[in-house]
Specification:
This protein is mostly helical and about 170 residues long. Helix content is about 60%, strand content about 0%. The protein has eight helices and no strands. It is globular. The protein binds zinc ion. Zinc ion (ZN) binds near residues 60, 63, 65, 66 and 77.
């Protein structure tokens, strides 16, 4: 993990490195994904259009209601709202409401009483964003239907697998 941070620092992409809480209970690829997400560096349809890789910005492939920005995908999209609702219930915490990418990556700071619980919850939040992004990719590239319960099952199964293996508990 330290090597990756060093690598990122050695390139020009250092903005916000300190804002992102790196978590070694989950795979590096999920941390890097989370960090890219927080920097608004994911290749969403709006970003691809901005870089002239596709001609026009397109609607969110999950709900079809708004342009696909990172903020929409992980905060206001109905799929994200349902995922956060399910996670609130699963983790037995008050209903999650997020309005910005920063809100998502700060969520764990509101978990009281224990650093361990905070770290577990941060892992789950990162895994949730990762699974939403995977479902979004499958919707775009494989035309797979969006199934919120399937996304939630994946979040739970990755959470058990990764956190159990790495936290040694
Ligand atoms: Zn949407």
């Amino acid at each position: 993990m330290a090597n990756v941070k060093k690598l990122l620092v050695s390139t020009e992409v250092t903005i916000g490195l300190d804002l992102f809480c790196w978590n070694n209970w989950i795979p590096l690829k999920v941390n890097v994904f989370g960090w890219r997400c927080l920097q608004n560096r994911l290749a969403t349809l709006v970003e691809l259009a901005r870089r002239k890789i596709i001609p026009d910005s397109k609607a969110c492939p999950m709900c079809g209601c708004r342009l696909e920005t990172s903020e929409h995908l992980f905060t206001s999209c109905i799929v994200a709202c349902l995922v956060w609702h399910n996670i609130s219930t699963w983790c037995k915490i008050p209903q999650i409401f997020v309005f910005s990418l920063k809100d998502i990556f700060d969520l764990h700071k509101f978990i009281p009483n224990s650093n361990r619980r905070m770290r577990i919850f941060q892992s789950i939040v990162l895994i949730a964003c990762w699974c939403i992004w995977q479902a979004r990719n499958k919707r775009i590239y494989e035309e797979e239907n969006v199934d919120v319960q399937k996304i939630v099952r994946q979040i739970k199964s990755y959470s058990f697998l990764w956190i159990k293996a790495r936290s040694r508990r």
